[in-house]
Specification:
Blueprint: H1 2-9, H2 13-20, E1 26-42, E2 50-69, E3 72-86, E4 93-108, E5 114-133, E6 136-158, E7 161-178, E8 183-199
Antiparallel strand pairs: 1-2, 1-8, 2-3, 3-4, 4-5, 5-6, 6-7, 7-8
C-alpha cells in the first residue's frame, strides 16, 4: 500500500511528458519577443541631457500544432507585432505593424521535467509603415518571406501545460522596399522568446 501511495504522489515527470507529447494531441502555444523600451538623449558641452526619441516594441507569436508522431508536432504559426517611435516637441510619429503567417514543426526530446525541443518554420511576412509628419501621413507596405530555426526548453508544469524559452535564428527577405531603384532587402539574426504551451 505504501508503495502505491508513493508512486501516485511522486509520478515521474517522464510519464507526464509522454501524455503531453503523444500522437494525436494538439499543441496551443503563445510566445512574446522583441520587447523593447528605449530612449535616446544627447547633451552638448556637459549641459543637461535632452531626450531625442522614444522607441517601444512588442511581438506576439501564436502557434497551433498537431502531434503527427510522439514528440513531433507540425502546424501553423503567426506573428503580430507593433513598434512605435515618438520625438519630443514635435507631432511626428512612426508606427510599424508586423504580420507573419506560415508553417512550423517542433520536436521534443524527452529528458525529464525540463524537456528541450528543436523548432523550424517559415512563411510570408508583411510590414506596414505609418509615418505622421507635418506635411501629412505616409503609408508604406512591404511584403516578403521569412525562415527560422532554433532550440528551446520546455518546463513541464503538468500533462496539459508548460513554460517555454526559445532562442531562434531567423532570416527575413523583403522584395521591393524601394521600387524606384528596384531595391530589395534581407536581414538575419537571433531572437529570444518566452511563452507557454498547452496540450489538448
Amino acid at each position: 500500500m505504501k508503495i502505491i501511495v508513493f508512486v501516485l504522489l511522486f509520478m515521474p515527470a517522464s510519464i507526464l511528458m509522454a501524455q503531453s507529447f503523444t500522437k494525436g494531441n494538439y499543441l496551443l502555444s503563445g510566445e512574446i519577443g522583441g520587447l523593447t523600451y528605449e530612449t535616446n538623449a544627447t547633451r552638448i558641452n556637459d549641459s543637461s541631457w535632452v531626450e531625442n526619441s522614444k522607441h517601444t516594441q512588442v511581438l506576439l507569436y501564436p502557434k497551433v500544432g498537431y502531434f503527427v508522431f510522439d514528440q513531433l508536432a507540425i502546424g501553423i504559426e503567426g506573428m503580430i507585432g507593433i513598434e512605435h517611435y515618438t520625438w519630443p516637441n514635435t507631432t511626428s510619429t512612426y508606427t510599424g505593424y508586423y504580420f507573419q503567417g506560415g508553417l512550423f514543426t517542433r520536436y521534443y526530446v524527452k529528458t525529464g521535467k525540463v524537456s528541450p525541443f528543436l523548432e523550424a518554420g517559415g512563411g510570408l511576412y508583411e510590414i506596414k509603415h505609418l509615418s505622421k509628419i507635418s506635411s501629412g501621413d505616409i503609408t508604406s507596405i512591404f511584403k516578403g518571406s521569412i525562415l527560422h530555426g532554433g532550440a528551446g526548453i520546455s518546463i513541464i508544469l503538468s500533462e496539459k501545460a508548460s513554460l517555454d524559452a526559445t532562442l531562434v535564428y531567423q532570416r527575413l527577405f523583403l522584395g521591393e522596399v524601394d521600387s524606384f531603384n528596384n531595391k530589395e532587402e534581407k536581414t538575419s539574426g537571433p531572437s529570444f522568446r518566452i511563452g507557454a504551451t498547452f496540450f489538448l
